[in-house]
Amino acid sequence: MITAINGIKGNRFRRAAAVTVTAGAVLATGALTAAPAQAVTKPSIVAAGGYVMNNATGKTLYTKAADTKRSTGSTTKIMTAKVVLSQSNLNLDAKVTIQKAYSDYIVANTASSAHLIVGDKVTVRQLLYGLMLPSGCDAAYALADKFGTGSTRAARVKSFIGKMNSTARSLGLTNTKFDSFDGIGNGNNYSTPRDLTKLASNVMKNATFKTVVKTKSYTAKTITKTGSTRTMAAWTNTNTLLSSYSGTIGVKTGSGPEAKYCLVFAATRNGKTVIGTVLASSSVTQRATDATKLLNYGFATI
């Protein structure tokens, strides 16, 4: 009998121990977190404005001065690309001859450049990479000249900027105005974190745009004046999140004396996409830090 009693006690102890171990394993794996979760703390960012939303539903996940108008820097080029990609019967392989006016513009404005060579023939597709990766203002000028209408370059550029503004209105971006094709404005080029996020969400539906903005590096082969092939120096994407934040799929950086440091960003994890904007951060590093905080918060609250 003593043996039997000891055996029963032993079994009970083993079962109790097994239950304890199992409970510990469950807790370790987080399987019991179905209990009321602690609220995720809203992050603090240095950027003056920020906005994040669920890309699939449009639900707002974060706001900080989300509707305050600010200079946008080169995030303007998202709209430049949108207008180009909205052209009817667009031929991405159509060639554009690089004009001296484009390089003169870069020099005069000390602007970011794709280092396009005067006289080279560059495809529209290549210009989109030159626009979005190194943030080439020369590529932006070439696209505005190509897709604007008018008998002079000035008229075509004015027409193109008009298309940017009419597109903004059609998308319901009520706090957005463009007076340039690249963000180097004349004091009347502005948007908001909410509007830029909505714009990016819209144009990310375009397969070409989506492919371009998630590309870290691109090497264009252009055609020279003599008909030979020129292999350009590689264009590197200025969006550092593509390397630092897993799941990043875009979108565009921006900077300038007034705009400070801006970033429109998007990432996909576990089938969910978070998209957002920070405007007027304090440095290249800080805008990435701000965006990372907002992405983490977005995925925690989506």
Structure notes:
This protein has 10 helices and 13 strands. It has helices spanning 2-29, 77-85, 100-109, 124-132, 137-147, 153-170, 193-203, 207-213, 241-244, 284-301, and strands at 49-54, 60-64, 70-71, 95-97, 121-123, 190-191, 217-218, 221-223, 229-231, 235-236, 248-256, 260-269, 272-281. The model is unreliable at 1-35 (pLDDT under 50). Helix content is 41%, strand content 20%. α2 (77-85) runs parallel beside α5 (137-147) and α3 packs across α5 (137-147). With 302 residues, it is α+β, with helices and mostly antiparallel strands.
Strand fraction: 15-25%
Helix-strand pattern: HEEEHEHEHHHEHHEEEEHEEEH
Distance between the termini: 61 Å
Query: What would you call the shape?
Result: globular
- Largest sheet: number of strands, sense, barrel closure: 5 strands, antiparallel
Strand neighbour order, sheet with most strands: 2-1-13-12-11
Rg computed from alpha carbons, rounded to a whole number of angstroms: 26 Å
Q: Strand tally, please? A: 13
Instruction: Give the proportion of residues in helices.
Output: 40-55%
Overall pLDDT metric: 91
The number of helical segments is 10
What would you call the structural class?
alpha+beta
Please mark out the parts with pLDDT under 50 across 5 or more consecutive residues, or reply none. 1-35
Short account of what is shown:
The protein is 41% helix and 20% strand. The protein is of the alpha+beta class and 302 residues long.
